[in-house]
Design goal:
The chain has one domain (2-110). Helix content is 14%, strand content 49%. It has helices at residues 77-80, 93-104; strands spanning 2-6, 8-14, 17-23, 32-37, 43-47, 53-55, 58-64, 67-72, 84-89, 109-110. β7 (58-64) and β8 (67-72) form a beta hairpin.
Length: 111
């Protein structure tokens, strides 16, 4: 499991591709998670503690109050080094939930 508190969230849209970044510090982020769409709308996961981008490894994302739980597909957990990632954030969840749905497209369940 990976856990961190995201004090800042960045939502961007560029040419119909969306990205949501959760990070701990706006000026000098140490801990971050980025969910983005690739050219073919695949779901890309980028973590601060790896040099890899993981494509379509997320099974489900649950947004509860001020927490998002990102569940990694069981067959990908060794590659990603986590079974799930828990992100606590300061922002209200309504915009975050809808934006995560947009980023995820059809590649994982968002609830």
């Amino acid at each position: 499991m990976k856990y961190f508190h995201a004090h800042h969230i960045s939502l961007t849209e560029d040419s119909s591709l969306s990205t949501i970044a959760f990070y701990d510090d706006v000026d000098d982020p140490i801990d971050f998670i980025i969910l983005s769409q690739g050219i073919n709308h695949e779901l890309i996961l980028t973590l601060n503690d790896t040099d890899c981008e993981f494509i379509n490894v997320i099974e489900e994302i649950k947004v509860l109050h001020q927490t998002a739980i990102v569940k990694i597909k069981s067959e990908e957990q060794d590659n990603v080094d986590y079974d799930y990632i828990e992100i606590e954030f300061d922002e209200p969840t309504n915009d975050i939930r809808s934006f995560i749905k947009k980023v995820c497209h059809t590649y994982c369940t968002v609830s």
